């Protein structure tokens, strides 16, 4: 865009200035501030002079080595995430295979997509309280349903049992997100070159072979994208465990985010400990983002650059030869 | 030969039947919890405790009266949520489009570095900065204000990323140059020539930004402590408190009221929403 006479490049700075300013004030500064708080003795409601600890990493050490709750929250987050992600990706893949199968041609796909995606758009806090009511004991809708269908003979106290409580949180996550994953995967399949499927059909491949030999390998990048965004999302899991059972029973649904919120804002005001936990979480998210960044980088651009460099080198070599 | 073909059709039909059964079952699984919620919002507490029903009863108004007689104020929550979500969506889409425009049209030093940086910070979780953000806002006396929930939306890296892709695909530099020759200023060109081109992308991103803000619990919960500032998701947490302990009908009624606006929006815009998800880059 550079032209003789008028240079417009200053507008590049002017137009991105609001973004940069908002980012510096509302994102970068708070992150750095949080990091600093993690090294201090800041606690309590009343502001008082704070000091960097004598052993700066004391808060981090305490969390990782001595804090049972924090470690439980990490393992809960991982457990709930795995219990939701594996069924989620399997079901999403199955539905994708069905909805994109040219021979089967499922009718009413549009309506199915709308309905399966629906839970994703509803407020997570409402869903958490709703499921808390649905699973109530002894006379909740789910208990009634299970007895009607003959699954159980006496009411089950789902919310007091650690395993069922975790299971329900994982189920809610699964139920809210599989539709989303499915739509992303279907879009991925639509992007595959149709000639590949035609060639497979001509070679006489059946549905299974086409799916496992063509669809799945072509979806690798998109599945990695889903995997990483879902992990980062899972790391931040807050609304559902917070409003479902406040992290209970007996810390069974305490996730890292619920732990951070609890430390800082529910009576104990341990800002330093919460900040240190935030930083540990931040580092984990940063590593995952780095992976995603590496994965999503502009491959064609990188390849072009490489090719260009090769040409330049060759040109130089020729020039030197002369 | 005919027999083989017939066998194939039969197995295809069996497959199809299984697929429809599973899809219908999953659709029911999506609907049923909300159906029970709406039905129970019309039933009295004894009715709810006596078992499951899929047909509405007659206690809707009683439930509503009980609900509203206590601290749950859905109208207040609705308007607070509307103000926060509305303004932060405006900030997010306008300034993201502007930033994307700066990245695409102008050739400035640091442009590439800035874009790389935007991709890097796309995934910073809110929790990572929450403590520092809260302390900072506390020092500014901005807790219980809507500003800290609206202004950060100006820097929305994921939306900038999406808008940049869109501009790269649709904007022709000739159009911008023609506007310049006609003597239009840069900001005028952006507002009057470029923004209209971007409407499809803006609409998609606006829907998702609005819904994400509307559903957000973490930040409002930390910053807003006065009851008349509560957003709908915080209001929902009141339903779990002691005040509605045995008023099950009212709890379901409160939940239904918070879901209703989303249902209306979703079924009006579902086509665009699904298309938007398919475009990717929406996952939170």
TrEMBL record, chain A:
Q: Which GO terms describe its cellular component?
A: plasma membrane
Gene3D superfamilies from the UniProt entry: MetI-like
Q: How does it sit in the membrane?
A: Multi-pass membrane protein
Q: Which domain of life is it from?
A: Bacteria
Q: GO:BP terms for this protein?
A: transmembrane transport
Do the record's keywords include DNA-binding? no
UniProt KW keywords = Cell membrane, Membrane, Transmembrane, Transmembrane helix, Transport
Instruction: Please give the Pfam families that the UniProt record associates with this protein.
Output: BPD_transp_1
Transmembrane segments in this chain: where? 12-32, 78-99, 111-135, 175-197, 218-238, 274-296
Concerning its family, UniProt says:
Belongs to the binding-protein-dependent transport system permease family.
Protein name stated in the entry: Sugar ABC transporter permease
Give the species: Cohnella endophytica
Automatic annotation (TrEMBL), chain B:
- UniProt keyword terms in alphabetical order: Cell membrane, Membrane, Transmembrane, Transmembrane helix, Transport
Q: What is the lineage of its organism?
A: Bacteria, Bacillati, Bacillota, Bacilli, Bacillales
Q: Which PROSITE patterns match?
A: ABC_TM1
Q: How does it sit in the membrane?
A: Multi-pass membrane protein
Give me any GO biological process, just one: transmembrane transport
Write down the Pfam families for this protein, in alphabetical order: BPD_transp_1
InterPro entries in alphabetical order:
MetI-like (IPR000515), MetI-like_sf (IPR035906)
- What domain of life does the native source organism fall in? Bacteria
Query: Which Gene3D superfamilies does its entry note?
Result: MetI-like
The UniProt entry, under PANTHER family, shows: ABC TRANSPORTER PERMEASE PROTEIN MG189-RELATED-RELATED (PTHR43744), ARABINOOLIGOSACCHARIDES TRANSPORT SYSTEM PERMEASE PROTEIN ARAQ (PTHR43744:SF2)
Subcellular location as annotated: Cell membrane
Q: What is this protein called?
A: Carbohydrate ABC transporter permease
Record-annotated membrane-spanning stretches: 18-38, 78-106, 113-134, 146-169, 190-211, 249-269
The entry's cellular-component GO terms read:
plasma membrane
Q: What protein family is recorded?
A: Belongs to the binding-protein-dependent transport system permease family.
Ranges where the ABC transmembrane type-1 domain occurs: 78-269
């Amino acid at each position: 865009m550079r032209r003789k006479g008028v240079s417009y490049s200053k507008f590049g700075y002017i137009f991105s200035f609001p973004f940069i300013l908002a980012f510096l004030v509302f994102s970068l500064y708070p992150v750095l501030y949080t990091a600093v708080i993690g090294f201090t003795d800041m606690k309590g409601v009343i502001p008082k002079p704070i000091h960097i600890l004598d052993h700066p990493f004391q808060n981090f050490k305490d969390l990782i080595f001595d804090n049972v709750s924090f470690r439980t929250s990490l393992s809960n987050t991982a457990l709930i995430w795995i219990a939701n992600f594996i069924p989620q990706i399997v079901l999403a893949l199955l539905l994708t295979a069905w909805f994109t199968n040219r021979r089967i041609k499922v009718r009413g796909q549009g309506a199915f997509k709308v309905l399966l995606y629906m839970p994703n758009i509803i407020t997570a806090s409402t869903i958490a309280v709703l499921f808390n009511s649905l699973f109530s004991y002894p006379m909740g809708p789910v208990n009634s349903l299970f007895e009607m269908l003959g699954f159980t003979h006496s009411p089950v106290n789902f919310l007091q049992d650690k395993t069922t409580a975790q299971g329900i949180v994982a189920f809610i996550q699964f139920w809210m997100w599989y539709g989303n994953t499915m739509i992303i995967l279907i879009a991925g399949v639509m992007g595959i070159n149709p000639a590949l499927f035609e060639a497979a059909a001509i070679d006489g491949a059946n549905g299974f072979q086409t799916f496992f030999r063509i669809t799945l390998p072509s979806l690798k990048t998109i599945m990695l994208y889903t995997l990483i965004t879902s992990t980062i999302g899972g790391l931040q899991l807050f609304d559902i465990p917070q409003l479902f059972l406040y992290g209970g029973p007996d810390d069974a649904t305490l996730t890292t985010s619920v732990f951070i919120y609890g430390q800082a804002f529910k009576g104990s005001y341990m800002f330093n400990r919460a900040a240190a936990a935030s930083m540990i979480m931040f580092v984990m998210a940063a590593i995952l983002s780095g992976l995603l960044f590496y994965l999503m980088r502009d491959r064609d651009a990188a390849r072009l650059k490489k090719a260009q460099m090769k040409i330049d080198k060759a040109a130089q070599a020729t020039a030197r030869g002369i | 030969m005919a027999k083989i073909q017939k066998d194939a059709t039969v197995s295809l039909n069996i497959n199809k039947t299984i697929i429809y059964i599973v899809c219908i079952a999953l659709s029911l699984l999506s609907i049923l919890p909300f159906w029970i919620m709406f039905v129970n919002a019309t039933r009295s507490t004894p009715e709810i405790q006596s078992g499951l029903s899929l047909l509405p009863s007659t206690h809707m108004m009683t439930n509503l009266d009980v609900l509203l007689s206590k601290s749950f104020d859905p109208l207040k929550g609705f308007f607070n949520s509307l103000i926060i979500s509305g303004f932060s969506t405006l900030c997010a889409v306008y300034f993201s489009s502007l930033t994307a425009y700066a990245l695409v049209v102008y050739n400035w030093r640091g442009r590439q570095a800035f874009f790389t940086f935007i991709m890097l910070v796309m995934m910073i979780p809110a929790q990572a900065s929450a403590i520092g953000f809260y302390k900072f806002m506390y020092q500014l006396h901005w807790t219980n204000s809507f500003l800290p929930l609206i202004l950060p939306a100006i820097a929305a890296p994921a939306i900038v990323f999406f808008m940049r892709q869109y501009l790269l695909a649709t904007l022709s530099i000739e159009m911008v140059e023609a506007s310049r020759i006609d003597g239009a200023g840069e900001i005028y060109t952006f507002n009057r020539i470029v923004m209209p081109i971007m409407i499809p992308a803006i609409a998609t991103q606006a829907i998702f930004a609005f819904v994400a803000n509307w559903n957000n619990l973490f930040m409002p919960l930390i910053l807003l402590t006065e009851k008349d500032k509560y957003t709908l998701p915080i209001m929902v947490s009141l339903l779990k408190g002691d005040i509605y302990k045995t008023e099950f009908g009212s709890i379901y009624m409160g939940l239904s009221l918070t879901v209703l606006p989303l249902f209306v929006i979703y079924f009006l815009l579902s086509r665009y929403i699904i298309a938007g998800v398919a475009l990717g880059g929406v996952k939170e």
